[in-house]
Design goal:
Largest sheet: 4 strands, antiparallel
Helix content: 40-55%
Strand content: 15-25%
Order of helices and strands: HEEEEEEEEHHHHEHHEEHEEH
CATH class of one domain: Alpha Beta
CATH topology of one domain: Tetrahydropterin Synthase, Chain A
Number of helices: 9
CATH architecture of one domain: 2-Layer Sandwich
Number of strands: 13
Distance between the termini: 181 Å
Radius of gyration: 57 Å
CATH superfamily of one domain: Band 7 domain
Shape: elongated
């Protein structure tokens, strides 16, 4: 009997040790284990080797908290009551747009994810629909489709996070990704909207071309205006300086004239005549001596003489004549003939 009692005790001890050993478990990296005691939340443990009271006292559930999860919002299912898709939403100016996007999220609190919401994924979808309808409802159709389209995602993400935090779902929204063609008008007005969009693009292109033309023309116009201003300033300075110099020269001449009027008058007359006759082709001759010759075309005569000399020089070559010193003096007979011809023409002209 004593041996049987010892054997039974050993069996019970071994069974107890085995039962207690079932409480050991391992939590992988990126996971959290939620321990419940008799179905009620007890604690949350992180990655590593852990122990809890064996079943049925305590249980644990492993949750991936770093895994990025995704859910699509905006389905193409048509609602019979309205005839529109579930993705259709009303804008501020009472137009309809369709939006499709994907929500990426991860768990921030494993306990809240398990015990605060019956359907956490459904809560994410409902929060996303609520947020996007509120954001789009504050936009006009043109803004939602073009100008403020890039602002929809960050606004929806911020509003979604506020809603989920309010309900303590234990979810962190990582990002909102609009799908290709995610924001679009209904199919009934798609063609008209495409025409409007093309017109807007043409307007932007024309505006950019005009701006580029302005950027090219305006600097050149400014440069030309600056150059004209500098030229005008230089002309002004030159004229003023010239006027001041003329005035100063007149004053100096006036001083000399007051000292010797006749001498100054004669000198001014001679200077004026010299300046005038230096630029004329006619020479005036005094006719008081009874001569009928009023002017001599000296410039024409000189020109004709030069032309005849040049023509003769091309025909007759120079002749070398030795002088008394034994050197060769080159006497050009062409010059003699040219002078004779010039004299003959002068006689004929007279």
């Amino acid at each position: 009997m004593k041996s049987a009692g010892i054997g039974a005790g050993l069996v019970v001890a071994v069974a107890l040790l085995i039962w207690l050993g079932t409480g050991f478990f391992i939590v992988q990296e990126g996971q959290q284990a939620v321990i419940t005691q008799f179905g009620k939340y007890h604690s949350t443990v992180g990655a590593g080797f852990n122990w809890r009271l064996p079943y049925p006292v305590q249980r644990h559930e492993l949750i991936f908290v770093t895994q990025i999860r995704s859910v699509d919002v905006g389905r193409d299912v048509v609602i019979k009551a309205t005839g529109l898709r579930e993705s259709a939403m009303l804008t501020e100016d009472e137009n309809i747009v369709e939006i499709k996007f994907a929500v990426q999220y991860r768990l921030s609190d494993a306990r809240a994810y398990l015990f605060e919401s019956k359907d956490p994924t459904g809560a994410v979808v409902q929060a996303a629909e609520t947020a996007v309808r509120e954001v789009v409802g504050k936009m006009k159709m043109d803004s939602a489709l073009s100008d403020e389209r890039d602002q929809i995602a960050p606004r929806v993400r911020a509003l979604m996070q506020k809603i989920l935090d309010r309900y303590k779902v234990g979810i962190e929204v990582v990002g909102i990704n609009l799908q290709q063609g995610g924001v679009r008008p209904p199919e009934q007005v798609q063609a008209a909207f495409d025409d409007v969009l093309k017109a807007g693009q043409e307007r932007e292109r024309a505006k950019n071309e005009a701006q580029a033309y302005a950027n090219d023309v305006i600097p050149r116009a400014v440069g030309a205006a600056s150059r004209l201003k500098e030229e005008s300033d230089a002309y002004k300075s030159r004229i003023v300086a010239q006027a001041q110099g003329d005035a100063q020269r007149f004053k100096s001449v006036l001083t000399e004239y007051q000292k010797a009027p006749q001498v100054t008058r004669d000198r001014m007359y001679i200077d004026a005549m010299q300046q005038i006759y230096s630029s004329v082709t006619k020479v005036m001759v005094d006719s008081k001596q009874g001569s009928n010759l009023l002017y001599l075309p000296l410039d024409k005569l000189i020109q004709m003489t030069s032309q005849v000399a040049a023509e003769t020089a091309t025909v007759v070559s120079p002749v070398s004549v030795p002088n008394s010193d034994g050197l060769n003096n080159t006497s050009n007979s062409t010059d003699v003939r040219a002078r004779d011809a010039a004299r003959a023409r002068t006689r004929e002209t007279r």
